[in-house]
Automatic annotation (TrEMBL):
Gene source species: Rhodocista pekingensis
Keywords for this protein: GTP-binding, Hydrolase, Nucleotide-binding, Repeat, Ribosome biogenesis
Gene from which this protein is expressed: der
Name recorded for this polypeptide: GTPase Der
Amino-acid positions noted as binding GTP 2 in the UniProt annotation, renumbered to this chain: 214-221, 261-265, 326-329
GO molecular function: hydrolase activity
Biased composition (Acidic residues): 174-202
Lineage of producing organism: Bacteria, Pseudomonadati, Pseudomonadota, Alphaproteobacteria, Rhodospirillales
Length: 475
């Protein structure tokens, strides 16, 4: 039996601003990591899948190595990078060939030599004559022959493949002996021996894409760490710590989950600088790709203007929305806080009634199972489909109870209705005069759908189409 090949895990390490994120994006074939000339852009390590020269890779981008050992942000970033190196099969140690070998490069080369993870030395920005002196200096580091490449221009990747080949995981090709085959096969001479039909393997459930969003410093990263049970992303008192959207593959009660921590979203007028704009754009991309979005609120500032802006954004994108009120253990008047939340939702988001809300403490790990239960229910509703026959029986009852208004003395007629897609539930309503059907009657139908088919808190879309007859009506 031939086992499936395991992916080679490769961690990209080096001092700040040597091109680690540029190489990461080049290998995974997407602009997943934020790239800027400012040192220290990457803070948390992030992983992506790649295929390079036939080698299946899991590539890990890390924060720049700093010689700091206190409790500062830089020291916490260093500890995250150390964890990534320990988990990797091989580390790519990047230097800047144009800048030459620095004392910091020497220091970290010595540190990497002492570790258990094999190291490949990579001289980035080696294109042209400007990179040649640095390429020669790289031999001083004692890590073998450097691999020259240009991550920005994609040059030298063939040499990188050659350097990675010795570390490629090999599948186990051991064949069972004849005795093992004899024991495994039924004896045809034995009375009643039958070869049992092999049952097909059940399909694995698809991963739930779960995004964690909110304003800065409300506890998004703390929540992700509490859910996965390890310090996967950096946390601390500093606001705006998370920049890249960090995805973590996880499993909860047999359901694969792809958790994504995102940068905090401030009001547009307060967004300052290129890096923050890139981080905001990355968060918006994550929201568009998500199935369910958990909007984390600070219990001491529930649903302010920016929270409502984020909630509307999620609803307009058609994602399933769950609200998590964090730091609930420190709230004194819990009843008043919940009443404030319900009032704000009712007045500011009337188009999506019944948004599920869970009070949690990410720091203490309180009510996280309940949050995940609610998330699963929201995901199921987001995927819900309703048979056309049920929809048309329901819409006839709605029209009889409250007929559409008259337009120029003639009644608007709703011919029939059908669900055209899920994720979110989207329905086509065929009307003789779709342009004249007023907005308040559309809301009447949406609210009726939500109540009759038990779809609280999920975005429902109605598409008005012109139709003269019902193709589902019996002759």
């Amino acid at each position: 039996m031939v086992e499936a090949k395991r992916r080679l895990t490769v961690a990209i390490v080096g001092r700040p601003n040597v091109g680690k994120s540029t190489l990461f994006n080049r290998l995974v074939g997407k602009r997943l990591a934020l790239v800027d000339d400012t040192p220290g852009v990457t803070r948390d390590w992030r992983a992506g899948e790649a295929r390079l020269g036939g080698i299946e890779l899991t590539v890990v981008d890390t924060a720049g190595l700093e010689e700091v050992f206190d409790d500062s942000l830089e020291a916490r970033m260093r500890r995250q990078t150390e964890r990534a190196i320990e988990r990797a099969d091989v580390a790519l140690f990047l230097i800047d060939a144009r800048a030459g070998v620095t004392p910091l490069d020497h220091h970290f080369a010595g540190w990497l030599r002492k570790g258990r993870t094999p190291v490949i030395l990579v001289a980035n920005k080696a294109e042209g004559a400007a990179g040649r002196p640095g390429l020669l200096e790289a031999f001083e580091l004692g890590l073998g022959e450097p691999v020259p490449l240009s991550a920005e221009h994609g040059e030298g990747l063939a040499d990188l493949v050659e350097a990675l080949l010795p570390y490629e995981p090999k599948p186990e090709d051991a064949e069972p002996d004849e005795e093992a085959w004899d024991e495994a096969l039924p004896d045809p001479a034995e009375e009643g021996a039958e070869a049992e039909a092999e049952e097909p393997a059940p399909e694995e459930p698809k991963a739930l894409q779960l995004a964690i969003v909110g304003r800065p410093n409300v506890g998004k990263s703390t929540l992700l760490n509490a859910l996965v049970g390890e310090e996967r992303v950096l946390t601390g008192p500093e606001a705006g710590m998370t920049r890249d959207a960090i995805a973590v593959e996880w499993n909860w009660r047999g359901q694969p989950v792809r958790l994504v921590d995102t940068a905090g979203l401030r009001r547009r007028a307060r967004v300052d600088g290129k890096l923050e704009k890139l981080a905001v754009a990355d968060t918006l991309r994550v929201i568009r790709m998500a199935h369910v979005v958990v909007l984390v609120l600070d219990a001491h500032a529930i649903l302010d203007k920016q929270d409502l802006t984020i909630a509307r954004m999620v609803v307009e994108e058609g994602r399933a929305l769950v609200i998590a009120i964090n730091k609930w253990d420190s709230v004194e008047d819990k009843g008043a806080a919940l009443k404030q939340l319900r009032d704000r939702l009712e007045t500011s988001l009337p188009q999506v009634r019944g948004i599920p809300t869970v009070t949690i403490s990410a720091l203490r790990g309180q009510r996280l199972d309940e949050l995940l239960d609610v998330t699963q229910k929201a995901y199921a509703l987001w995927n819900k489909r309703i048979p056309t026959a049920q929809l048309n029986r329901w819409v006839r009852g709605m029209v009889e109870t409250h007929p559409p208004p008259l337009v120029e003395g003639r009644r608007i007629k709703i011919r029939y209705m059908t669900q055209v897609k899920a994720r979110p539930p989207t329905f086509a309503v065929f009307v003789n005069k779709p342009v004249d059907l007023p907005e308040h009657y559309v809301r009447y139908l949406v609210n009726g759908l939500r109540e009759a088919f038990e779809m609280p808190g999920v975005t429902i879309r109605l598409l008005l189409r012109k139709g003269s007859s019902n193709p589902y009506a019996e002759d």
